[in-house]
Fold these 4 entries.
Entry 1:
Amino acid sequence: MADLIYQPITQLAAALDAKQISAVELTQAVIARTKAVNGRLNAFNSFDEADALAQAGASDARRAAGQGRGALDGIPVGLKDVIAVQGQPLTASSRMLAKFVSPYDATVTQQLKRAGAVLWGRLNCDEFAMGSSTENSAFGPAVNPWDLTRVPGGSSGGSAAALAAGTTVATLGSDTGGSIRQPAAFCGLVGLKPTYGLVSRFGLVAFASSLDQIGPFARTVEDAAIVLGAIAGHDERDSTSYRATIPNYRAELGGRRGPWKLGIPKEYFAAGLDPEIGAAVERAIAFYRSQGCEVKPVSLPHTQYCLDTYYIIATAEASSNLARYDGIRYGHRAAQASDLVDLYARSRAEGFGAEVKRRIILGTYVLSSGYYDAYYLRAQKVRTLIREDFLRAYQEVDALLTPTSPIPAFKIGEKSDPLAMYLCDIYTIGVNLAGLPALSVPCGFTSGGLPIGMQLIGQPFNESGLLAIAQAYERAHDWHTRHPSL
Ligand code: GLN
């Protein structure tokens, strides 16, 4: 099979079923590709060849015995290094956890194992998933395969770079404010943030628990549906997990044809939007119109408060979640300390990077007595207004269409001001505050050859509808079939 490393899951699963390739051959191909390019990409924090080949061998044995487990059986899937895999390192790209080995599997890890996937690699990200470029990784930034001088986005930048470069067939990331969708846009991939509660957070290193969701990066919308189908579902070990029967997302794709009513939020086409991205998204809007979709302008009036609200709630939750790294129970422990408090302080000072410290300080401030009401409580109220904006729009439309990011992949080192970095998430964070599902799908390239993504935002727990709208676009365009030369 030509170009094994760039095939979608659907093609590879068919080839595995037809015995044209074996899972071991496929895994060998991604291992070889990883070794050839990761020195330039820094997308992997670690990988375990022997373990991956053993998983692939087990998959081949299952298929030979007529016990194949479906589309993911034998497919290499990479995990962001914030998702626990028993017996493997789990670093969150932090010095704090640099030597930590996970004693258990995340629920999504168990689900992927059950589906027969070959878990391949621990993927680089911003430290504790805080950032938009992977430059906050303690192990150095991951690099964008489309232009090695640029970032792949973040925080799940390694998950995007690894997939775009053909070193794996699908990946998982986590999305608290855009960390799946923005890197997907920067690297020319499909990236889906599920509705809050659809995918278990058990075994995900917590950043901001009311916003975090795990989701897939994939080459095609159908592949994203396949991975989502494997990881969605109720979990007793996550108290915010949604109780409902999970549809067969892949099967449902075929049945939904539109036309749909699409809303275009005017606040998402404001100053600061790169003109080439604006034009690409306008062409996508014209495409939907040409397919009989009704396209109407809508307003999400509280959009201007999203960034402030997010950076209060996310940092508050982060400061609380990260209190567990005290140098005592696990993680980095300072070598010298005069007493217990000094040990806490030194361990945290040595273990955390600058951005993580900035957020802990901010979060502690907004939760402190005297400021709690003024910041945290008020932010929670604004969050409700932001969610109501979306729900009001959904009385008129099926989904919203926006750019994913105001800018394409930027240069490594270009954004040294934290505020400039925070502004990158302006179109993605409202979705997390509202708990909605959203995806990024490729919709063009800049004149400089950088991928452009558009965002589709759906109604709560209607991932099937969202995927169908994206697929209608994907089927009529070939952006997703292009690959970086590397
Ligand atoms: N870039 C955003 C932040 O730094 C979002 C990160 C994420 O989604 N994990 O918080």
Entry 2:
Amino acid sequence: MNMKKLLAIFLIIAMALTFAACGGGNDDQAAQDTPMTYKVAMEPTFPPFDTINQETQELDGFDVDLMNAIAEDQGFELEWVNMGFDGLITALQAGNIDIIASGMNASEERREKVDFSTTYYDSGLVVAVKTGNTAIKSIDDLTADMKAGAQIGTTGADLATELFDAGKIKEAKIYNGLDVAVMDLQNGTINALINDLPVTKAYMDVKPGTIEIVGDVLNAESYGFAVQKGNTELLDKINAGMQNIIDNGTFDDIAAEWFE
Ligand code: GLN
């Protein structure tokens, strides 16, 4: 084979390798340009934080708008998932979801299992009764013949269970959905509901004159977004995005939509 042919073959190989390298570079660039998509879960019977839009049937709420604003600020995408509240932390630990955005109190006990973002809403538990029930004016008026309801996996359920274990109530009735717990309070199946102040108020607004809050706020809670323990990359993005939307007024605009 003469030199010319060898040179031609060499050039063809060199061009093919160059092309492949460039092509590969294009693939890498494309991968870098494709935004990350994170799976974020919530339990949607917790208005105004986590609910289902009755018109669109889409997941909706303060948590949704807040997390979407953070994602936009930080350039990542979200896939929203509806999940039972009691399954959220396990799903996060297993890596089945990436973020919990569900009005979750960033308690010390939970901080041992997951990492929380900067907290974004201060709340607390209250007792609610059926309107007209004058026997219960605070948690201290619950008696051993009464049933107190709460949502599964929540701080409210923890308190109701504590009362039951201490023999102070007949039953801690635990519900998957808070909407059913509220219905059972309204129809007299349970005597009291232990739940978060802003959410109980939201249910009161839906059906005024059916349930009412009695006594004082029972504890201090602060909601945070949760990520898998050690996922500092995602946690830093969420915290940076949260600070940015606070600084640029987006946080207050979203809050005004849901709380005023
Ligand atoms: N804030 C309560 C908790 O963290 C209830 C949350 C909820 O029901 N979404 O347990």
Entry 3:
Amino acid sequence: MSNSTKYIFVTGGVTSSLGKGIISASLAKLLQARGYTVTIQKLDPYINIDPGTLNPYEHGECYVTNDGAETDLDLGHYERFLNVPTSQSNNVTTGRIYQSVMDKERRGEFLGKTVQVIPHITNEIKDRIQILGKSGDYEIVITEIGGTVGDIESLPYIESVRQMMWEYPDDCIVVHLTLVPFLRAAGELKTKPTQHSVKSLLELGVQPDILVCRTEHPLDNTIRKKIARFCNVNPTAVIESIDASSIYEVPIIMQQEELDKVVLQKLDLPSKGNPELKEWKEFLDKLAHPKSKITIGLVGKYIELKDSYKSIIESFVHAGAYNECEVDLKWIHSDKLNGDNIDNELSALDGVLVAPGFGSRGIKGKILAIQYVRENKIPFLGICLGMQCAVIEFARNVIGWKDAHTTEISDNCEYPVITIMEDQKDITNKGGTMRLGAYKCKLLDGSNIAQAYEEEIIKERHRHRYEFNGEYLEEFEKHGMISTGKNPETGLVEVVEIPDHPWFVGAQFHPEYKSTVERPHPLFLAFVKAALKNKQ
Ligand code: GLN
């Protein structure tokens, strides 16, 4: 192990959804604010190689990194909090671990040995944990173990943590997140679930150093002492994590609880002064005191599970706060939009975003929504499939090509205005084969998008197989939809706009992946501004 890297493992007990990702990101933020270089990694116990092939209903949004990894949505939180990009190494799944071990087995790398969970799988896990540390870029690596202690699937991960704690006792600590429920009938907070979940960890050979206790009510000293006594930790290492009104308050709450201080003590690292978190607090202040309010319609087909649009939602939180404006999202199910209800659903909106997606369900509603905002001059942002639908709508209703479509849905349409990318044509495997990750885009001077970025060449992340069909560009431009962003190398059309509209932008890339608290995304900032203007 590199002698300068420290490892913090974050495990969870009692129940899922306690917010391990947010606690990890908050701790990382505090350590970063003290001057440490920190990154966060997520180990996911499921057997998919990555979440790229998962339906959003299963696991929420698939987050894409600069290097084109399709990852867990927690990586989005890591980037939004830390303002530092993540990569493929920051997300590892059981599927990837096994695939790598099995490839090695086929290559004969195990020299005739029986391949087993211990040591082969656990060695692979430990190697993956240490990749980021060994890169030399980070003093501290926080590794979040997905799932809940006691799950069959997470056993090899916990075992790997046990081995690392034993091998490098001075460089590793475990932060265990649990729930302290309040029983209304008894009028009391209950510590037993925490005790049990720590016992489960102990059975696996892991003694947590710090307990972060999620609770709806403050933990008094008696409760803290009780938890400490039963779980072999110091009372100061029992950290209260009270419900917050915004995830962005959690770093401040953790600072008040001194989570970062206790962590540094346990790791024997200098505290390097108390972080001010000035910019962060300014952001929180703006977030809490908006001067105006707008309503943006979010048209998508996965809206029953809001996590499917996590990065978009957070981008609006950032852009809203910086515009001192509360952005109220109205969720509009693209499946349910039709000619009868469209006016009712969209007329009062200050702006409309049509979301990314795959397949035919909900396409009609998306196209209808775009026609409505185009004709009624409501500010519009289309992302990926949302941009593609804007192109289809324009072809049908402005140019007059009634049978214009994307070949994703209608292979034999007369006007394939959106078509499969050349290098996608022979691909049959679904996993990890889209056009993924960051590509350059050259913006047209004077366009809405160029004004938003105030830059000529930008880099944004992609995740798609289909694209604007360049053959038709001339005809589109003649009729008033122009390309305002192109890939400088290939000439692919990445952005379309309608200059004769207050603000109509469709982007083939996903701006939402790059919005952070300290660097709100320029396109969302500009969209919110346009919606504010529309409202006035
Ligand atoms: N389904 C479209 C494509 O593959 C759009 C993808 C997306 O919205 N991410 O090109």
Entry 4:
Amino acid sequence: MSPARILRWCRHLAHPRLSVWPSSRQAHWTANQQEGVGALPGHVREFVESSARLCAPQDIHVCTGSEHEAQSMLGLMEAQSQVVRLPRHQNCWLACTDPRDVARVESRTVIVTDSQRDTVPTPSDGTASKLGNWMSPQVFEREMGLRFPGCMKDGLSPSTWPCNPEKTLIAHLPDQREILSFGSGYGGNSLLGKKCFALRIASRMAKDEGWLAEHMLILAITNPAGRKRYVAAAFPSACGKTNLAMMKPLLPGWKVGCVGDDIAWMRFDSEGRLRAINPENGFFGVAPGTSWKTNPNAMETISRNTIFTNVGRTSDGGVYWEGIDTPIPPGVTLTSWTGSPWTPGDAEPCAHPNSRFCTPASQCPIMDPEWESPQGVPIDAIIFGGRRPEGVPLVYEAFNWPHGIFIGSAMRSESTAAAEHKGRVILHDPFAMRPFLGYNLGHYLQHWLNMETEGSGRHLPRIFHVNWFRKDREGSYLWPGFGDNCRVLDWICRRLDGEADALETPVGYVPAPGSLDLSGLQGVQAEALFSLPKAFWEHEAAQIREYLTVQLGPDLPPAILWEAENLQRRVAEM
Ligand code: SAT
Ligand code: MN
């Protein structure tokens, strides 16, 4: 994440105010640091000084972001055994965390607003909201008072991962555009420019200012005739966003370019086109499952200048994880993320399931030439998706904008390792934003619905839903996925061009027989991929309606309720 990149955009959008916490303790600077601090803009300097008074650090270092600085920080951490160098790859490093600090902690991620309803809807069944955690300003003040004063007084003990799992709290103050994070060093909890700012705070700014901050990848797809389109796609964490964003298409003549793999900021331009930027500078991707077969572009991206967390390590200075799919040379041994000797077949995995790579986007061999374009890229289609082993077809298209918003609100997916959930369960994850909402989901859905009616002459993107993960009775995937997913993108593009036939079904438009290009694919059962089992859909439609009506209560937009009721009605008539 490049703060400069984020800040460049912030300047267009709003001025984030920085936290000021009064305390009597005097900050201590060295001469050199004085210079760095002196060069800061006034309100940033105030923030640093008041934070220093509050947290009482021994020293303050103002980061410049230079290469020299990065190397000296890594060198210091290496000397303290907090990171190890991976000599098989140029400037690659491994950090293994405290096993209690490996994922986002949703239960300790809160949004602080005066009114609870600004943050979460009130469920109609009297239970606590599943759509975020609200904290009152009074409780927030108290909780912060229990954590921050003097918290940097004691030196960090070398060779241990600094975290405080009992006291972890990630607090957002959307009205002040502030974030305060305590006790975790895990990406989503501590890289504050990412989920905390670019999604939670930014989604609130976007609502206030009429744009969208979304948990979406952005990719460019060019057909063999040279026609290029951009699409944005929302999938829950660890559902293959990075793989799709960097796909190597298996259909001859097609080309994919990557704009971003996780976050999209989008607004309609003066010509009514939805334009998207990726506010990030790099990728923070899940390592397990990444291989030269599943994502060769990611493998090339992470071959240098990359920080790995919680992956395994080879004795010859390389990395290892489940599904890396590279042979271990004779004589080379493995060490697991917990630091124990590891051999294939061991009960525990070598890499943590949520182990990650953090790597510069510019190293990805297929970055789209427009990926840093300040006006953003024009989005023609929005794709929702999830990990659905049963019942959900490979691809379907929404009937219209409100139906598409309903499809986004009805997203469900098998749970992943990116958060603290146990086991594999199907979770509701509206717009893949459930863990990242900066405000009430009911208001969020209304904001999306308004995109159709606000402003004139808008070219609304068409909306699709995909599922690469449907399985047969024996539990085998019905669809090869990865590079073959370009067949689905091809169908989507031909729908946009008015050239692909579709059948109307109760859930949406599915490809007419023969309209999805399956040429050269062996053994794909198209019928099983597109079947709509009535009993499954009756249950699904009922669950969606119940979830939305109970969770959103009086904040459920009537247009979404209408869509939920209509899905149930259409399914009943199947
Ligand atoms: O867990 S993170 O938020 O850092 C990454 C993700 O879930 O997409
Ligand atoms: Mn994500």
